[in-house]
Design brief:
Length: 305
């Protein structure tokens, strides 16, 4: 895929979080501090288009409003990646909406309260996140839902998408697999969803009336049946290389390859006719894919050359 000219600066305001997700990409929590002088220097040198405030949980950072004030009236598109819980607080929300935030990227892990709270390992997190999302809808904010697929919520995928669009059909839902980093690195096999169940849930999207507002990111194409890929490829996005991402934390900045090392094409992929369009598989759970296809009867009309 040809890269475009988008440049995104991701600001890690903190590694601390008010959730405790068992698949957290950071692992151990720690305080961080953004030096606005360094930020100013970077923005003067790089042609940045978009700025993403992230964490940890950026809404609990002591510097979030200082950073937003700095960015106010500048040309950048600003997004906030959040679990949405602080948005349930009226005073915080009212202060936040005064800033020109382009979109909110909200993590939601199920339409079931008990499943969401289990994955966040935080009681009442579902209720607060849902309250935050509803406030965003009421205030006509642009919302993107981040749904991380795990063993515990894979069967909830389709119903969660429907619940979200019952609140507002304009909400974009992005689906992605749990990644073998941070807390999940050592126990990815126990967190990874059953591929058979994932295939079933993804296939339901084919006939979903609002599938234009569902995007599937970095999920190997072998988990979709061939008819779905050929007729509905518009919602299956493999867009890992279409922008440059810069990360800023403390006083360090680095350009990051979106396609991480744990997502690769391996020997197992050699015979697949979709390999040129696919991001590959998660090498930490390669055996999961191999076993899945050993038990699945493939034909030349499916995935083979």
């Amino acid at each position: 895929m040809m890269a475009n000219n988008n440049k995104v600066l991701e600001l890690h305001l903190t590694n601390n979080c008010n959730n405790n997700c068992e698949f957290c990409s950071f692992g151990e929590k720690e305080d961080r501090d953004i030096d606005l002088k360094v930020l100013d220097e970077i923005l003067s040198k790089e042609k940045i288009n978009k700025i993403a405030l992230s964490g940890g949980e950026p809404t609990i950072s002591k510097k979030i409003f200082q950073v937003l004030e700095y960015l106010k009236n500048k040309r950048y598109s600003v997004g906030v990646a959040t679990n949405g819980r602080m948005l349930s607080n009226d005073a915080f929300f009212n202060k936040l909406k005064d800033y020109n935030i382009n979109h909110f990227y909200v993590s939601l892990l199920s339409y079931k309260r008990e499943t969401h709270d289990k994955l966040t390992r935080t009681k009442n997190s579902f209720d607060q996140t849902m309250k935050g999302i509803k406030k965003l809808v009421k205030n006509n904010q642009k919302i993107i839902i981040d749904y991380v697929i795990t063993k515990d919520n894979v069967k909830d995928l389709y119903e969660t998408v429907k619940m979200i669009h019952d609140m507002s059909p304009k909400i974009m839902v992005k689906l992605r697999l749990v990644e073998p980093v941070g807390f999940a690195k050592k126990k990815i096999s126990s967190l990874f969803p059953a591929l058979r169940l994932l295939e079933e849930e993804l296939s339901k999207i084919k006939s979903y009336s609002n599938k234009k507002n569902v995007k599937v990111l970095a999920i190997p194409l072998c988990l979709f049946n061939s008819k779905l890929i050929n007729s509905d490829y518009d919602y299956i996005k493999q867009n890992l290389d279409d922008f440059s991402l810069f990360k800023l934390s403390d006083e360090n900045i680095k350009k990051v390859k979106i396609k991480e090392n744990f997502l690769k094409k391996v020997d197992f992929c050699a015979s697949c006719r979709l390999r040129k369009r696919c991001v590959g598989i998660y090498t930490d759970v390669e055996d999961e894919f191999i076993n899945f296809f050993k038990n699945k009867k493939l034909t030349k009309n499916d995935y083979e050359k």
